[in-house]
Amino acid sequence: MSASILQPGQIEAPAGDIPFLRLPARGSHFRDRAARFRQLADGHKMGDFLEFMARLSEAQHAALAHFPQVALPDADQLALARAHGMPPLAARTWRRDPAWRTALQAIAASMSEGASRPVGDAIARLSVLDEAGVEKLADAVLDNRFHDIDLAAAPFVAAALQVYWTHMSTSLGAGAFGRSEPPSLCPVCASPPVASIVRIGGAEQGLRYLHCALCGSEWHMVRAKCSNCESTKGIAYYAIEGGKGAVKAESCETCGSYLKILYLDKDPLLDPTADDLASLALDILMDETGVQRSGPNLFLLSV
Ligand SMILES: [Zn+2]
Ligand SMILES: [Zn+2]
User: How far is the CA of 271 from the centre of ligand 2 (A)?
Assistant: First the structure.
């Protein structure tokens, strides 16, 4: 038997044949995530938290279904963004429509039914904030600044922001977006990925996509390459012993970072946001190796 070393790109079709961008399926994105959280919660050490996340994802599904029309970039603005390789809905600079706060209220109202004491208290604190206070919290979540904010209130804000950005991206459609720089950030909203996922089926068989932490869009990046700095040297994979290998950490010697990579051929029901939270043990393991996680999970610091 002989072995050969594959170079990045060699194991995949030429770039032109690859679906570069996959937007979330509007009707099922949050509903499927809720089902996955529920499945992962069963018998899990963090079962209560994962069950809470299942309910939060269901509330997101309902909020997205009722989201009103909002201002979007026009055709000229989209063309200009594509020409310059810029994400047109950049999370840190986009002027948010107040409709996202209506979604936040709906999500909070839904979560307050039968809520535990700490969850109820967090929702109560959120409900007395003025508009500026809520927007400040949103800025902090989008900036991944979690040190000086109300951590218990942050998941509701993150959930509403995800719904708002998913609403905008799916309203515009995949054709609105082009490739952008740097390739480590989402071409829709310029957020970092929560994880990457190796897909199965059709033209995407075996292709690796980075999954946006905010808007849920996925963009293609060849495998065996650091998703943070694009180095192809010193890439190593770590997994929890005894698992089925569906979730690994891909670490890079060059920039000293890691991001999880999920393999749908090992488990077709994987969801990047849900499976990332359910595999916190792997983050703890990676912390011991001294590498830093490169992309956020907007719900991670609330655990
Ligand atoms: Zn995005
Ligand atoms: Zn790197």
Answer: 23
Q: What is the pLDDT of residue 303?
A: 52
What is the spatial distance between Cα 146 and Cα 296, in angstroms, rounded to a whole number?
A: 11
Q: Quote the pTM value.
A: 0.93
Residue 7 has pLDDT above 60, yes or no: no
Q: Indicate which CATH number applies to the domain containing 154.
A: 3.90.1670.10
For residue range 22-74, what is the model confidence (pLDDT) as tens digits? 999 999 999 999 999 999 999 999 999 999 999 999 999 999 999 999 999 99
**At what angle are helices 29-41 and 154-172 packed, to 10 degrees?**
140
The pair phi, psi for residue 26, each rounded to 5°, is -55, -40
183 and 172, same structural domain? Answer: no
Domain span at residue 202 reads: 15-19+179-302
Cα(250) to centroid(ligand 2), Å: 10
User: For the chain, how many structural domains are there in total?
Assistant: 2
How close is the Cα of 241 to the center of ligand 1, in Å?
32
Q: In 3-state terms, what secondary structure has residue 198? A: strand
Taking the centre of ligand 2 as the mean of its atom positions, its distance from the CA of residue 234, in whole angstroms, is 9
For the beta carbon of residue 222, count every other beta carbon within 10 angstroms: 18
292 Cα: distance to centroid of ligand 2 (angstroms): 10
Of 176, 201, 230, the residue that ends a domain is: 176
pLDDT tens-digit series, residues 94-108: 999 999 999 999 999
Taking CA atoms, 220 is separated from 85, 125, 130, 295, in Å, by 15, 40, 40, 16
Residue 281 resides in a domain:
yes
